[in-house]
Queue: 2 jobs
Job 1
Amino acid sequence: TVGCVAVDSSGNLAAATSTGGLVNKMAGRIGDTPIIGAGTYANSLCAVSATGKGEAIIRATIGRDVAALMEYKGLSLEKAAAYVVQECAPVGTVGLVAVSANGQVTMPFNTNGMFRACANEDGYTHVGIWQ
Amino acid sequence: MGWAIALHGGAGDIPRSMPPERREPREAALRHCLQIGVDAIKAGRSPLDVVELVVRELEDNPHFNAGRGSVLTSNGTVEMEACVMVGDTKKCGAVSGLTTVKNAVSLARLVMEKTPHIYLGFDGAEQFAKEQGVETLDASHFITPENVDRLKQAKEANKVQIDYTQPIQKVEEEDESASLPNGDSQIG
């Protein structure tokens, strides 16, 4: 699964995700990617794109839960995303990338690796696979 | 406040023993796609344009599980899915069950912008793609030899695999600490 999230200097957010799904999935199986609030979500606070095992991501409403923790509990993007990835989905099933309206970036995962990259206006750039 | 961009190419059981010839092309692709996004956002493109542009590039790279390189169903076919969402309006579009559309993410954006709906799937999504004139290709374009092998392994083990999963071994040979022959992760 591939995905991208972006925020501009005015705080406008967007998310996109695309996938082929799971190897040996049943024909007709729908995964998390096209389910709004599961594998992909954006509102005025953050944009989220998830990857991993779709069934786990749908059950945990990963994308929407990150936004909801920010919206209702006032958590930062980093804390909201970390909580959702570590506490809401089984170990080994999910990773996500997210940005907030104020330019924060986070890329947590509970699998043993995630192909990921990020950059921001301050010149910070990161490309990684493992912790 | 400031712009920021993040992207992923899949998660899963990615072994640290992955050999350089498999790791480096993926890292290079991540850097390449990140730079495309950075250049676009610096040029004043909207975040929606940026995420579509970056995901199209990732879809076209056979090292990742989307577009060319999509993993296979139990029938040996591809069924691709994509989604876009805009934060301030919560407008969104999604597609599933695509077999011929070169860049599913762009069709998802068209669903958002050109229909009163959020989500189109299978025959309806393919028909909409034709009506919109998006680029389509024979399904064989999306199928790589590597993914044919992965399906064969998964069928033999009667398992599904996410983006990057280590090759499935027969139960009697399973050893979680064993290093992999090719070091590649075989999940989605």
Note: The CA atoms of residues 25 and 37 of chain B lie 18 Å apart.
Job 2
Amino acid sequence: MNIFRLAGDMTHLMSVLVLLLKIHTIKSCAGISLKTQELYALVFATRYLDIFTDFISVYNTIMKLIFLGSSFSIVWYMRRHKLVRRSYDKEQDTFRHFFLVLPCLLLALVMNEKFTFKEVMWAFSLYLEAVAILPQLVLLQRTKNIDNLTGQYVFLLGAYRAFYIFNWIYRYFTEPHYVHWITWISGLVQTLLYADFFYYYFNSWKNNVKLHLPA
Amino acid sequence: EECFHVKDEL
């Protein structure tokens, strides 16, 4: 474990807590894409298949349980909770995420570390995580006023993978054999997708104006 | 053979 990875995990945890806080306290999911939340639940479900078979550390297991539990409960809130579901703008959140899942699955069947079920699922979860934010970014472009919690949620979600890139660089130089192209390329693509969001988020923070993405 | 990739990251 290095400081970059710990910072990344904590940032990721904070993004999930910010979202749960928003949904649980003000019972609203306005501006949040259910499609992205469903994709994240699928990412964690396919990435943590080995949660009960391969024990890495208490920290690792606890964090996996938190990410699994939070992502599925957020999907449940947005689909089932009578108050929360009312604030979900179904008309705007129309990204057909099936067109993200299928290419990632096909790519995982071709590009993986080993052609086994677990390895293909693991590669799939990495490719899917890289593009899972797209429905959310599209929704942000459509909804005019982005509330602070939603902006912070997306920012933290992007920042966590940026920290991970530093973690991979650090591990590459400190650990022999640490070469994992699938993880690195997926993580880089994922972070680049946030680039324009970061740009507008930073400007809105610098000029102290409401975050507003150009249509 | 490269040491098998233990998935120790989240």
Note: The first helix of chain A runs from residue 3 to 25.
